[in-house]
Structure formats: C-alpha cells, structure tokens
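Final report, section 2: Outcomes. Of the targets proposed, 2-amino-4-hydroxy-6-hydroxymethyldihydropteridine pyrophosphokinase is the one most frequently requested by collaborating groups, and we therefore present its record in full.
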Amino acid sequence: MINQLFLSLGGNLGNTREIFEGAYPLIEKKIGKISVYSSIYQTEAWGPIPQADFLNQVILVSTRLAPQACLTEMLAIEKEFGRERKERWGPRTLDLDILYYSDVVIAEADLTVPHPRIAERKFILTPLAEIAPSFQDPLSRKTMLELVDSCTDTSNVNRFA
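The predicted structure is given below as tokens.
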C-alpha cells in the first residue's frame, strides 16, 4: 500500500540548499518517490538558542514503508549529512521530520504523527499550505490553509527559492 508522507526539511549549518539537493536522491532511494516540493523558505530560528536563520521546505513523498521504517531511514539520512543531536532546537545541517503519514495518527515514545507542533509553526504551515492547501489534519479536521490562517506564530517566513 502506498502512503502519502509529508516531510519537512530544515537546516542552518553549511550550504543548506546544497544539503537539501543532496538529500532528495537519498529520500527517493530509501523512503519513496518525491511527488511535490514546496518552495524553500528562510525563517527565524525557533526556540531559546540564538542562531542563524533556517531554510525550510516541505515535500510530499509516496512511500510503501511503515512510519517507523521512514523514521529510521530519515535519521540515517540526517547522520549522512553530519547531523549531530547535541541540544534541542540547536543548529543543524539537516533536520527531517514526519509531519503527516496519510491520515494516520501515531502516539509512540519515539514517534508522534501528526507532528505535535504543526499548528504552532508558521515555518511548517506555510510550505504545507503551498503544496497541499486542502489537506486536512486528521486530528483537528482543519485544512492547511485554515491552520496557517489561525496560527499565532509571528515569526518571519520568507520565500527563499
């Protein structure tokens, strides 16, 4: 069975655009075919640690892998690009997150789907609404456009490419 996986890509260390371009073939090889790419957005860093702005993007991947297998492959891809998990919300070369896995809801110790903070983060909602404006969050039943419109995040999210 093929599932629709919405993944976010983010980073603020190194040449993030080149890192994203290097990650796409690995995502396609290890997880599934990328069918839609959002624009890349430059966004303020989220969290308490002062650091450089991030580049963020959302992609839609068609996958046959189970969610846990997707997570395992994503962590391996992050590591391949030098991701070190030193501090929460710290700078990173590549951050991959599962946002949605079709309309599946998962609550496990190491995996929560939908991503638990989607509705709070304009840097995720803006590219999501760009590529899937009518996709409904399986918990709130709101569309991505409705979520971005009601988001209270006031950080700047600017189209980069």
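The helical segments are 16-30, 67-80, 122-131, 144-150.
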